[in-house]
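Please, structure for the following, as tokens.
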Amino acid sequence: MSDDLSSLHVGDRIRILAVLSKEVAGYYFEETWTLYERLVTERIVLQIFEIDKLGSPWVRCRVADSPCDEYLAISDYDVWERVAEDI
């Protein structure tokens, strides 16, 4: 289950475990919603590449049929787990 966001550091690896219902996550764009569904379904491992000035960890990923990288800030609403280095 999710640790405290402040425990994440650049280089840490995580996996998103669930997509919130659209009612709870009403601030997401449809494209973001679709990306989260793929991250969960395909069990994609993400690496923290930046912690912004507000302390939010950011990940960058590219799914197979996307022409560009996607950037996501991990928030208190996200359900995630830390992934061991050897996976």
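Residues 5-82 form one domain. DSSP finds one helix and five strands in the chain.
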